[in-house]
Structures are given as C-alpha cells and as structure tokens.
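Page 37, continued from 36.
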C-alpha cells in the first residue's frame, strides 16, 4: 500500500524536477506535495510540464507510480459502495472495465448491463471520443434525452437501485488528473506508461471498485500499437491495482481492424442493442463475453470463466440483459423505446453502398482511417467541445482476409448530405485495401495479464458452478 502523508511539508519544485531529470526516484512526500501544490496553483504549469517530460524520458518505479496515483485520487472525492448489499445480505462487489480505446469499440454498452444482471454493481465511468477513437458518452448521447453527467450522489443512488450507471468523469473525481491530462496533451507527454497508468487508475480507484477489467488494444488502430508497450501498460496497471488492494485483470485485444461492423455513434448503439439480444457480430459478442467472464469471476459471482460465459448466454437469450440496458436508459432520462426499436435512433439522411474496386483479398480495414472518416462525416470532433452528428458513420461488412469479387458491396456510408457521402467514399478508399494476398489478422484476444503473470489467452477453463446473486 502507499503511505499517507503525515504532515504537509513544502518542497522545492525545481529540486523535484532536477531529481527526475537526473534519473532519481521521488519520495512519497515529494510526490504528494507535487500533486497537491499543482492542484492549488503553487507549482507553475511550465514546472509541471518539465516534470512530466522528465518522467516521460526517465520513467518512474512502481512505488512512485502508486504514490502518484494515490495523490491524484486524494485531489478529489471517492465513491464508496461498501454499504451496498445483495439480496442475500452479502456485500455487493463493484467492478467496471476500462478500454484503451479504438474504432467501433462499443463494448461498454452491452457489457455493463450484462454483468449488472448478476448483481455486480457497475458504476461505469466512460469518456468522450479522443483523436480518431469514439467515446462511449458520445454514443450514449445518440439516445434522445440520455444524461451522462450524473453527480456522485445520483450515481450511487442509481447503482444502488438498478446496479448500473453509465457516467462521465465528474468534476469531483481526481481533479488533478483532469488538469494534468490537459497539460500533457499540449506538451507531447501523453505517451508515458507511468503517467497513463496513474491517470487511468486514479479515476478507476476513486470509483470505489473492488475489481477492474482492462481491455488493452494492440495493432495499428491502438493508442499503443506495439504489443510489448500494451503489455507493459497492462502489467503496470495490474501491479498498481494490487498495491491499492484492487484485483485487476487485463485482456489484450485486436485493434488492427475496427471492432464489429458499425463505426459511428447511433450505429454503434444499434449494434450494441443487437449484441444484447445475442445478434451482434461475433467479435463484439466474443470480447463482451471474455471481459464479462473476468468481471463475474473477479466479483466472486462465478467460480470460473466457462460457467460465467454460460450464465451470460442465458442472460442474453432470456432478454434480461437487454431489459437491464432499458432500465439504465430510462433511469438516465433516455428514451427506453430504442431498445425494442433501434430505428428511433438518429437516422442519416443519405445512405450509399461502397463497392469493391477489384477482386481479391481484403488486406486492410485501417481503423485509424475509418475513425478519421467518421470525424470527416461529422460524427467526431476535431476540436474539444464541438457538436457532433450522431447519425453518421459506416457499417463495414468485410474483415481482413475475406475474399471479395469486383463490385461486391463492402460497406454502407451514412452521411448527412451528398458531400458527406463523397467524403465517406474517399475515407473508405484509403481504409479498405484489396490485394492479391492478405496477412492473417491479429487474434481477437491474445494475452491475459493478472498478478500471477502474462499468459497467452485461453477462453476456457474447467467448468464449475456459477454462484448467482440476482
Ligand atoms: N486515458 C487516460 O485517461 N489517461 C491517459 O493518460 C491516457 C488515456
């Protein structure tokens, strides 16, 4: 565990920067003071920027990362779910998942209500689109009336009542991270594994979780494309969770192509609703089940992943998972009728097929180009705070490795006007490459990282009983 500070002690910011510049380790007291002083405006932006750069270049050890995370948590409030009880009187477990983000990644939408069916409390904290990647909050706001900015009190009440809330980062949680992230964004210091791990984990740990599942993307469309860097991030966050007493399991999943078929806000909500009915694309169902199984096992609601998966299949086929999503939508002010009738979601004015220019194998469906294409259509932001058009995007019917004929439809472009259709077509011409041969795509799920170590991913284990608390 990290050491709490006994007293407030003043340090010299220049000395702290110099220590890190010269590859030294910062003490817990220095770190706690730094984050607190930065939050209070005692450390200047340029000093914090210099310190971030020294950390990016020289790293931090695990103890420093844990202390940095603890100090960011201490800058704000914490959610406390320790009083939540299951119907049988036991303490409710609280888990959520974090994805490092990608294109077509709508997994939170089916996953959170699915695991909430089993009595896991899920205060799912999500973000907005970042760069070419989509954001869960933007997707949810495709549903008329849906409110993502719940206060901590509202979040707690909703989780207590229906087991799940889908929320944005509030002002109250880890405010130091909010300022620090904005500074890192404009000083080329985002790509530091210690700073990324501390940033993500401070927000997650402040949620009062008893377990966390991470979806670490790898491949050309991932924030960290190389699997070695993804694994380093996963291992750092798993170790950080352990130091804070929270078990964390990370799965490494493919982002060398978009996840699922739909890319664009309302289109992804529709695909998530199909997934909750068991009719989603196999990769979306596969990642949902894999992460859900980890959450149920972490929460002690299933004794192994096979049993968890079977139980989730029943929750989907019985309609209980879709019903839970409906409850969440209604509780957050959204129109619950979209769950039965996704055609109530915003519909694009123009819809046009995109055809294969020649026969061959699909060599690439480049997620970054697809993601930037959604932004060009108006479905994402080039600048923070810009309004977005929820209706636009792509539905891509092919995967890398597919054999296609000349003139075969590969995708559908949803746009607001004919200029949008042209922009969408140009984006798909860059994103989808047909060639004489194609490399094998990355495995959908390749690694599993826990405190025990890093293993190749196996989806099954020996079947034992599911403990149901519904
Ligand atoms: N997401 C975060 O929340 N923080 C980072 O530093 C990077 C991605």
């Amino acid at each position: 565990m990290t050491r709490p500070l006994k007293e407030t002690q003043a340090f010299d910011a220049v000395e702290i920067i110099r220590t890190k510049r010269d590859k030294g380790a910062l003490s817990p007291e220095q770190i706690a003071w730094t984050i607190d002083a930065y939050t209070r405006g005692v450390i200047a932006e340029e000093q914090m920027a210099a310190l971030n750069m020294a950390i990016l270049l020289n790293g931090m050890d695990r103890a420093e990362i844990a202390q940095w995370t603890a100090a960011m948590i201490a800058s704000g409030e914490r959610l406390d779910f320790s009083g939540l009880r299951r119907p049988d009187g036991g303490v409710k477990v609280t888990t959520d998942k974090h994805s490092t983000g990608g294109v077509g990644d709508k997994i939170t939408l089916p996953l959170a209500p699915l695991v909430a069916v089993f009595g896991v409390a899920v205060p799912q904290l999500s973000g907005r689109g970042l760069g070419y990647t989509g954001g869960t909050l933007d997707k949810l706001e495709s549903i008329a009336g849906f409110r993502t900015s719940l206060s901590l009190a509202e979040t707690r009440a909703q989780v207590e009542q229906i087991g799940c809330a889908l929320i944005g980062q509030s002002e109250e949680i880890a405010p130091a991270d909010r300022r620090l992230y904005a500074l890192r964004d404009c000083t080329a210091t985002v790509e530091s594994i210690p700073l990324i791990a501390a940033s993500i984990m401070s927000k997650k740990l402040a949620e009062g979780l008893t377990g966390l599942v991470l979806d670490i993307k790898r491949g050309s469309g991932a924030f960290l494309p190389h699997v070695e860097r993804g694994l380093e991030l996963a291992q750092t966050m798993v170790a950080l969770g352990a130091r804070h007493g929270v078990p964390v399991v990370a799965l490494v999943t493919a982002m060398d192509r978009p996840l699922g078929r739909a890319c664009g806000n309302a289109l992804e909500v529709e695909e998530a609703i199909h997934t909750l009915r068991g009719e989603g694309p196999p990769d979306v169902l596969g990642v949902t089940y894999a992460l859900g199984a980890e959450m149920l096992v972490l929460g002690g609601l299933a004794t192994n992943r096979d049993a968890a998966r079977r139980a989730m299949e029943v929750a989907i086929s019985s309609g209980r998972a879709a019903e839970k999503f409906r409850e969440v939508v209604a509780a957050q002010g959204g129109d619950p009728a979209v769950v039965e009738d996704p055609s109530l979601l915003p519909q694009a004015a123009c819809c046009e097929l995109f055809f294969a220019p020649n026969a061959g194998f699909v060599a690439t469906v480049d997620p970054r180009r697809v993601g930037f294409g959604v932004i060009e259509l108006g479905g994402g932001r080039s600048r923070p705070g810009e309004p977005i058009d929820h209706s636009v995007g792509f539905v891509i019917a092919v995967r890398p490795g597919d054999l296609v004929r000349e003139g075969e439809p590969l995708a559908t472009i949803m746009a607001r006007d004919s200029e949008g259709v042209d922009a969408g077509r140009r984006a798909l011409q860059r994103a989808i490459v047909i060639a004489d041969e194609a490399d094998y795509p990355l495995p959908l799920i390749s690694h599993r990282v826990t405190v025990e170590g890093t293993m190749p991913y196996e989806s099954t284990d020996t079947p034992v009983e599911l403990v149901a608390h519904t």
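The pocket of uracil is lined by residues 181, 190, 195-196, 199-200 (CB under 6 Å). Flag for discussion at group meeting. The first helix runs from residue 13 to 21.
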